[in-house]
């Protein structure tokens, strides 16, 4: 998700390359995860991103340890950038490997008092739906639990997820255009009727719907 970065940060592609190589080195190292945990706890932004990119390599070989790593750091996420990279690079891949397992965790995260845990759940869907476009229904079920969200950082991730589901949803059956997903439209239509506090999420989430459908939703306000 594009948001304004602070100045003078190490370029993310460089960290990606470093993390990827570190992950490959640690695949055969039984202490790999503990070393990454030390780096995560002691490091700042750059170190955490390197850990995330290394973890993306390690999860290909060790699902359970990678999942445990995420569980242990979810309450130690410092900002939106680390949150989104962890979601897109790691948690989404874990969910592709074991949907039920990871969605159980994500349903717990949306109830957390930690906003970054809640954002992690929503941001994960943006990458997961690209791999599992047939799962738009269960993704919307998770987001349904989040529509009462009040934190702006989490709201942005919910809107982001809705836009991605709109683009990937296979239920494109409306007459207006083949790119008009029924599921997302009905979801947003329901919330537009139900909760005026969800309007900012709806405005953001409906941007990939055809203008005609957006106008229908707005008419409910």
Strands, helices and their partners?
Elements (H helix, E strand, L loop, with lengths): L11 H15 L5 H11 L2 H14 L4 H11 L6 H18 L1 H11 L5 H17 L4 H9 L7 H17 L13 H13 L4 H7 L5 H9 L2
How would you portray this structure in words?
With 221 residues, the protein is an all-alpha fold. The protein has two domains: 11-58, no CATH class; 59-219, Serine Threonine Protein Phosphatase 5, Tetratricopeptide repeat, CATH 1.25.40.290. It is built from twelve helices and no strands. It is elongated.
Quick check: average pLDDT? Answer: 87
By CATH's scheme, which homologous superfamily of the largest domain applies? ARM repeat domains
Structural class: mainly alpha
Number of DSSP helices?
12
Terminal CA distance reads 28 Å
Q: What is the total domain count?
A: 2
- The CATH class assignment of the largest domain is Mainly Alpha
Q: What is the string of SSEs from the N terminus onward?
A: HHHHHHHHHHHH
Might you state the CATH topology name of the largest domain? Serine Threonine Protein Phosphatase 5, Tetratricopeptide repeat
E-strand count:
0
Shape designation: elongated
Task: Briefly summarize what is shown.
By secondary structure, the chain is an all-alpha fold. Helices cover 69% and strands 0% of the residues.
List keywords for this structure.
Serine Threonine Protein Phosphatase 5, Tetratricopeptide repeat; 12 helices; elongated; 221 residues; mainly alpha; 2 domains
